[in-house]
Amino acid sequence: MSGTLNLWVKSPDTHSERRIDPHLTVEQLKGKLELITGIPARNQVITLLESESDPRVVASLDDDTKKLGFYGLRDWQVLKVRLNRMLLIAGLPRWAKVDDKNPSNTLTGQLTDVSQVEKFEISEAEYAKRTDSVLAYKQRNKVGRFAENAEEPANEAIDESVKVGARCEVESSEELKKRGTIRFVGPTKFGKGIWVGVEYDEPLGKNNGSVQGEQYFACRDKYGVFVRADRVTAGDFPVEELDLDEEM
């Protein structure tokens, strides 16, 4: 879509790059942000900040009838959702934030807040002694690495397009299109054979590019994942657009 702006959308539960039409009105933008952030459009207050190092308020997007172009939005600004606090993204030239005026009516941030969750912890040695665990089930039924025919994987044939820096889409059992950038291709200490490390566009991963204390690449937490090469398709997979024409 020509004429769109590359912008970041950030909330306690998501952070992604989106393409947004500057001809959107503030009201239309709020509707789009509700789908991404979970904050109801009627409860959003959008303000434009100068930068991370200079967080002066440039403008308040308080007129729902005005188009985004009226406020001078440019590439790589950040539409930021905050819940009673300011969240910052480093390295971006300009900033925007979205405040939740009615946080009691939303679940924003609660999905990732584990501070109130009581945790059950057990050592690896104690876990190995249990007879009711997944590990014990696999041992009894010879599943996975305990299978009788388990052997060293053959040298996988990796498509030459699967290389560091390439855009890709990862096959998922969750029926989601998980897009990202390949950050690592090679052997690891945590598993046999060749693995592909991917930095997702959104927090759909499992780690920050490290596994079992070994750092293979660097990204934000929950944006990194390691998968087998046969689940990765490299190619022209741009960051998904925030399309005005899609159903709302």
Automatic annotation (TrEMBL):
Protein name as catalogued: CAP-Gly domain-containing protein
Cellular component aspect of the GO annotation: cell cortex; cytosol; microtubule plus-end; nucleus
Domain of life: Eukaryota
GO biological process, one term: cytoplasmic microtubule organization
Entry similarity comment: Belongs to the TBCB family.
CAP-Gly domain mapped to chain residues: 186-228
InterPro entries named in the record: CAP-Gly_dom_sf, CAP-Gly_domain, TBCB_Ubl, Ubiquitin-like_dom, Ubiquitin-like_domsf
Principal cellular location given in the protein's record: cytoplasm
Intracellular or extracellular location(s): Cytoplasm
Keywords on record: Chaperone, Cytoplasm
PROSITE patterns for the chain: CAP_GLY_1, CAP_GLY_2
Native source organism of the sequence: Candolleomyces eurysporus
GO molecular function, one term: alpha-tubulin binding
